[in-house]
Amino acid sequence: MSDRHPHGPIFVVGAARSGTTLLQYMLGSHPNISAPTGESQFIIPLQRDASKFGGLTELANIERVLLEMQRISPEFIDTDLHGMRFDAPSLARDCVKHGADSITKIISHVYETNARGEGKQRWLDKTPYYILNLDTILSMFPDAQIIHLIRDGRDNVLSMLARKHDLRLFNVHHAAKTWQQYVEAGQSFGRHLTANQYHEIRYEDLVSDPTKHMADICEFLGEVFDPAVVEFKKSRDSGAKTPMLKQSIQGGNTDKWRTQMTPRSIRVVEGAVGETLERNGYQISTSTVRLPLLVRAGYRVHEYISRWISRNLGDIFACR
Questions:
Q1: pTM
Q2: Measured between alpha carbons, how far is 72 from 247 in angstroms, rounded to an integer?
Q3: What is the pLDDT of residues 221-245, one digit of tens each?
């Protein structure tokens, strides 16, 4: 067990809308794993801008880091840490007391304090875009374990576009290429990691046989399997953006693209990312002819204009 880093942090990553939140809730129901219920978003920005905070042996500078953490992710800090109350001055003093004198140590201290408040030993972070920054994550947390969740890109595109204004993805081609970017970034980096550091699982496999695959994940993590991870604690948020968090796992929550995606959209997605789909065990339904350059350019222009409209109209309404 000591070779499996059973006390290191856990990072759940993958393309947005690929089931990472479901897995987060499942693992957060394990008696040893603390999983704040949102997305941190702040780890990469804090590490990138570490030099601007000055020496982190000084109380004032540590407090600045904590306040910046709160500024970047106010909802996460205020509502998703269920084992503590986030008080920057008090936490800063605690960091000094425990020698938390780096960005990594400060972040770890926050998560560890929250985990202790929940009566747990390990902590988990679920922030999908960290899959693009796994080099930084592992340089900061070398004993971290990565779980990469992959979902059928066609279902992923449908789910992304249902949240297009949140994700700033406005057409099937761009959504498909975004899915591909995340999947291939994770797999490319994962090839250089050991089997004790990186674990890959398909969403469809997880929901079709959750007991088997959660047992596999627990084994990867060096944790004893507990049935609570299958009968996980459901969300009580009436406005939850992921309905599956409020009910038991639905094994049939797959292949929605077959009935909900137009034939043209299927051709576009499979033409854009067919090789990645097939490589991950998803059978394609059309001949994967690469889209003409002019069509691809049209989708890029559409995406650019749609983002501009969404951003600027949002600013206009916010000012009213």
A1: 0.88
A2: 31
A3: 999 999 999 987 765 554 454 555 5
